[in-house]
UniProtKB/TrEMBL annotation:
GO biological process: cell differentiation; negative regulation of canonical Wnt signaling pathway; positive regulation of proteasomal ubiquitin-dependent protein catabolic process; regulation of microtubule cytoskeleton organization; signal transduction
One MF term in the entry's GO annotations: ATP binding
Protein name as catalogued: Glycogen synthase kinase-3 beta
Residue ranges, compositional bias (Polar residues): 533-563
Gene Ontology CC annotation, any one: axon
Pfam families named among the record's database cross-references: Pkinase
PROSITE patterns: PROTEIN_KINASE_ATP, PROTEIN_KINASE_DOM, PROTEIN_KINASE_ST
Region feature Disordered, mapped onto this chain: 446-570
Family of this protein: Belongs to the protein kinase superfamily. CMGC Ser/Thr protein kinase family. GSK-3 subfamily.
Keyword terms of this UniProt record: ATP-binding, Kinase, Nucleotide-binding, Serine/threonine-protein kinase, Transferase
Entries under Gene3D superfamilies matching the protein: Phosphorylase Kinase, domain 1 (3.30.200.20), Transferase(Phosphotransferase) domain 1 (1.10.510.10)
Domain Protein kinase intervals: 85-370
Record's compositionally biased regions (Low complexity): 446-499, 506-515
């Protein structure tokens, strides 16, 4: 670190492009400035990062090389270094900003650069949260730097240099839809397990992602590694602190958010994960409302009308209960009569009205649905080994020590013996809030039906063509049958579309009644014709993510200066 800091006093010309002697032209040179930091009484470090100028140079082969002084994206490592990258091209954009792909020369690897406009009125959380994270299932922040896009306007952009992961769960799902098949069950297990592991990690730090959806789940199609990305909406949730309810992409928005709750917990991420799980099983979003109130209608079609107690658990300030009575639609009819019991059990503990009854992510990792992943030497459909799934850190093993005996496969117990309290039974996952569920899981995981599912070594899928659209067709449902694979003696689960399955329906009058009932303290929360009163952030109710900047507004009116301030929580 000292060596890097001392380099700030060197002549900038002596530091440029040491690794590349082929540089012919340098457009301009910027002066460097030392990174400064101060510590406040609230134990927060306020880091003032200089606004950088990107240097452009041309190599002999005509390739443009961009060089910038970037800060290292690691907690408690506040130093800078010059990085150079080439072949920059835009690969995505949205309300959050723009994402570019580039080649990082020093490390000879492909990177992603997320460029986000910084609004001085709002508190930025993404950078401080990204710096604090270090987990194998979360996209890695390598470097970051600030730049001016238009110096006259004073616009400041945060540039996050991230590891590059080629695909998303959304792209993978669309591929199988276009092929007229379903994602292999083993891949669904692999993706969901890694998602729950990532959520367990950030939730243990008090961080709620608030925008879990297939587009934010990066996957490597070769080795099956999944990494959670886009922490633009993430926030440290503090008990008693108000949060915006208009957050999270609509299809994956938890019902307590629709009810306008501002004191929600990390369990909103668990609901979103349940929506992702259901979408992977069905091939389309399970709840695809066209507006905020319509989203609630879609949820009620399947879960039924929430009781007064459930509504109170979602938002204790909600006092109107004049909803039409809709009975729950059985999960067996949603996914098919022959759906394995462990799938029904898992989805029912994710898509649950009462937030605290949704299982914690780490407990979800111990569910018997994932037992297939714990089989020694199990392989992917492409005959590759499974990615590392049980390389738990000390921090992970301290989240809930009583779970470690179930979390760690039996054949690896000797490697983690000091962290295993008892390995005799599943009674370890009891708690005051979900003991009843624990006992149900015990029964399900020990049932003959579950044993057959666990012994399966491959999962192939086939469905009827839906014209490549990732949209729910009311006439299509999923039924499951069994067939034997010619290449294996084990049983293979196959999915097929059936038009005979009864779909949940709700009358237009009931939908209208739900819309009218959505009021809190005589103030309408949502309406099919007007924007939600809970939309404290500007923007339409669409599928795009809502920036967490809406949560806290700063009151500073100071003039723009060429530096950016970021709060990093210790």
């Amino acid at each position: 670190m000292d060596a890097n800091m001392n380099e700030d006093n060197q002549d900038p010309n002596s530091r440029m492009m040491k690794f590349d002697p082929t540089v012919l032209v340098v457009s301009h040179i910027r002066t460097t400035s030392r990174l400064t930091s101060t510590v406040t009484n609230s134990s927060e470090s306020i880091i003032n990062y200089p606004i950088q100028t990107i240097q452009c140079s041309i190599a002999k082969n005509g390739v443009e090389i961009k060089t910038v002084q970037a800060s290292v994206g690691k907690k408690n490592q506040y130093y800078t270094k010059d990085i150079s990258y080439t072949n920059e091209k835009m690969i995505g954009n949205g309300s959050f900003g723009v994402v570019y792909q580039a080649n990082l020369l020093e490390e000879n690897e492909v990177i992603a650069i997320k460029r986000v406009l910084q609004d001085r009125r709002f508190k930025n959380r993404e950078l401080s949260i990204m710096i604090s994270l270090d987990h194998c299932n979360i996209v890695k922040l390598k470097y970051f730097f600030y730049t001016h896009q238009n110096q006259q306007k004073g616009d400041i952009y945060l540039n996050l240099v991230l590891e590059f992961i080629p695909d998303t769960v959304s792209k993978v799902a669309r591929y199988y839809v276009r092929q007229g098949t379903k994602i292999p069950m083993i891949m669904i297990k692999l993706y969901m397990y890694q998602l729950f592991r990532a959520l367990a990690y950030i939730h243990s730090l008090g961080i709620c992602h608030r925008d879990i959806k297939p587009q934010n789940l990066l996957v490597n199609p070769i080795n099956g590694v999944l990494k959670l990305c886009d922490f633009g909406s993430a926030k440290h949730l503090v008990r008693g602190e108000m949060n915006v309810s208009y957050i999270c992409s609509r299809y994956y928005r938890a019902p307590e958010l629709i009810f306008g709750a501002t004191d929600y917990t990390t369990k909103i991420d668990v609901w979103s994960a349940g929506c992702v799980f259901a979408e992977l099983l069905l091939g389309y979003p399970i709840f695809s409302g066209e507006s905020g109130v319509d989203q609630l209608v879609e949820i009620i079609k399947i879960l039924g009308t929430p009781s007064k107690e459930q509504i109170k658990r979602m938002n204790r300030n909600y006092t109107e209960f004049k909803f039409p009575k809709i009975t729950p639609h059985p999960w067996e009819k949603v996914f098919g009569a022959f759906t394995p019991t462990e799938i029904i059990d898992l989805i029912s503990k994710l898509l649950e009205y009462t937030p605290f009854l949704r299982l914690d992510p780490l407990k979800l990792c111990t569910h018997c649905f994932f037992d297939e992943l714990r089989i020694p030497n199990y392989r992917l459909p492409n005959d590759r080994e499974l990615p590392p799934l049980f390389d738990f850190t000390e921090q992970e093993l301290k989240i809930a020590p009583e779970l470690n005996a179930l979390l760690i496969p039996q054949h690896l117990h000797s490697q983690y013996s000091e962290y295993i309290i008892d390995s005799n039974s599943r009674d370890l996952i009891d708690s005051t809030t979900d003991l009843e569920h624990t006992l149900a899981v015990d029964e399900i995981c020990s049932s003959p039906k579950s044993s057959n599912a666990e012994s399966s070594r491959a999962s192939s899928t086939s469905v009827g063509n839906n014209n490549g659209n990732n949209v729910k067709n009311p006439s299509q449902t999923i039924s499951i049958g069994q067939s034997s694979s010619p290449s294996s003696s084990s049983t293979t689960t196959r999915f097929s579309l059936s038009s005979k399955q009864q779909q949940p329906t709700i009358s237009s009058s009931s939908s209208s009644s739900i819309s009218k009932a959505m009021k809190t303290d005589q103030t309408e929360i949502v309406s099919s014709s007007t924007s939600s009163a809970m939309q404290v952030a500007s923007g339409n109710d669409n599928l795009g993510s809502i920036s967490s900047n809406s949560d806290t507004v700063t009151t500073s009116t100071a003039k723009s200066v060429p530096s950016a301030t970021v709060k990093i929580e210790q």
